[in-house]
């Protein structure tokens, strides 16, 4: 079984640094929450991980389908609980494509393959909260 391991180091105040694959990530709180705003908040990094994971899948699938995209964005709308521990209670992944004469069925299939079969981050989320998706295609 493969294992991933990270080490996060407290720098000062509410600032923590982690090095992943040779890249430094700093997390912090907003100034109004007692931080220095030197990095993103931890929960939002979870959303970035989900968007990046599914996005990488979709790009690879679309490339194999020989679809030429002008742009591709992933937005995740996440509802959060009001009480502590504050956590996401649902997620909606919105895949947004732009291009000329894009094949809707193929793009929907690419997204569905990632959403249902390949994205490990979304698979973990689905064990904890409801996760839905939508595909939006804009003609350029």
From TrEMBL:
Pfam families per record: OsmC (PF02566)
InterPro entries: KH_dom-like_a/b, OsmC/Ohr_fam, OsmC/Ohrsf
Protein name (Swiss-Prot/TrEMBL): Putative OsmC-related protein
